[in-house]
Design a protein that fits this description.
The chain is mainly α. Helices cover 72% and strands 3% of the residues. The protein contains 13 helices and 2 strands. A hairpin with a 5-residue loop joins strand 1 and strand 2.
């Protein structure tokens, strides 16, 4: 999957988890690289301009995604939802709007709708990277490693999958193997602000306590997947 215009809305969802997990200095550096490197206008003027353009091009996926970005950044989920639903119908094989919709449904108290939306997409794309990562997240470590190996046979250039393998190997105390996989992920996603800025912490297995101090400890499954999703969403790399 190449970088889409709706990528920022996926980043938006992951910021709280990333801010909690990574040292403040590294988070701030990545945040600046991701957001300040591009001009993102979510003003009312931008909203009006996008709305006017959509009147002339109702099925323009990029316009729908950009409009959803603006509404989500301003917390107007009710306005973003129909745009994302329409974008998903236009490009049914694109996961970005589905991921954003799933999170909107969760945050607006529609957990059942969130689960069914993701399940329907994954079921329709059973050999997609997203389908594999969903299975990997739920599997026990040994099975998860086998799934990653299987997925990489079909998607050898997926930075997300190499990242997953690195995380799993790190959890299994295979330092050398995890280092190699982190390096492969970084090579495949050289423009990812998250991996270039935060990988040092991932390699060390650091996490941030509620008091803000950093300490070294093994990665837990929940932390691994939060970090992977942050990397996945912010890099939006080719899969």
């Amino acid at each position: 999957m190449t970088r889409a215009s709706g990528c920022k809305l996926s980043i938006f969802w992951r910021l709280p988890g990333a801010r909690e997990h990574f040292p403040q200095e590294e988070f701030d550096r990545a945040f600046r690289q991701i957001f300040r490197g591009e001009d993102f206008d979510n003003s009312s003027g931008s909203e009006s301009a996008l709305r006017a353009r959509l009147v002339e091009a109702l099925d323009d996926y990029d316009l729908l995604s950009k409009s959803a970005d603006v509404y989500i950044s301003r917390g107007k989920f009710e306005k973003a939802t129909p745009l994302l639903e329409h974008a998903s119908r236009i490009r049914p094989n694109e996961y970005t709007p589905v991921e954003a919709l799933t999170e909107i449904y969760r945050r607006t108290g529609r957990d059942g709708k969130a689960k069914s939306t993701k399940w329907l997409w994954v079921s329709a794309h059973p050999v997609s990277v997203e389908a594999y990562t969903t299975q990997i997240e739920k599997a026990k470590p040994e099975r998860a490693l086998a799934l990653v190996a299987e997925a990489l046979e079909s998607y050898p250039n997926s930075a997300v999958l190499h990242y997953d393998r690195a995380a799993l190997l790190h959890s299994a105390h295979d330092v050398q193997g995890s280092e190699l996989e982190f390096a492969r992920a970084a090579k495949l996603a050289p423009d990812s602000a998250v991996i270039t800025s935060m990988t040092p912490s991932m390699r060390r297995g650091e996490s941030r306590s509620s008091q803000g101090s950093c300490h070294r400890k093994p990665w837990k499954k929940g932390h691994l997947w939060k970090a992977r999703m942050t990397f996945c969403s912010t890099s939006c790399v080719r899969r």
